[in-house]
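Cross-check.
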Amino acid sequence: VLCAGTAGINLGGLLTDRLVRRGISDAPLRVGAISALAVSVLVVAMTQAPSAGLALAAAVLLLFAIAFPSGAGMAAVQLVVPNQLRARMTALFVLVSNLTAMLLGPPLVGVCTDYVFRDPAALDLALALVCGIAAALCAATLAWGAGHYRRSSQCLASGLGVGAVAMEGVT
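Predicted model, tokenized:
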């Protein structure tokens, strides 16, 4: 369990770097989307496992998948934000990510347990439902944003700046 997160961060970063070197500029978002899809499957597998051993195996894989895009996410922010704003945008990224997870996740699981399943023992089902849907939405959002991210990184690489993306289609 202790090694899964560390392995996920390192291997996710290696994959992202390899994809970027191959010319895939939206690699950080692709890695995040793939990881989010894996999380949506693994959280259901963990909560619905028929034995403790299988639940533990799924939990280890889940920790790996959750950590996998961590470095790529931070790198993605750094790559498309102007130098003068990188610290602020990174702080905002971390703040929004953590506030979203901490303020929405636990209450939604409780609401599902109490009002959707109407059974305090259905915590596993509520956790699978909330986390599975949240991870699937995350994957869809990252996939949708990949095109925008790709255009922004191409504008930055060509020296036009991110503002050129906003002007795209205006003329």
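The mean pLDDT is 88. The chain is about 80% helix and 0% strand. Passed to J.P. for a second look.
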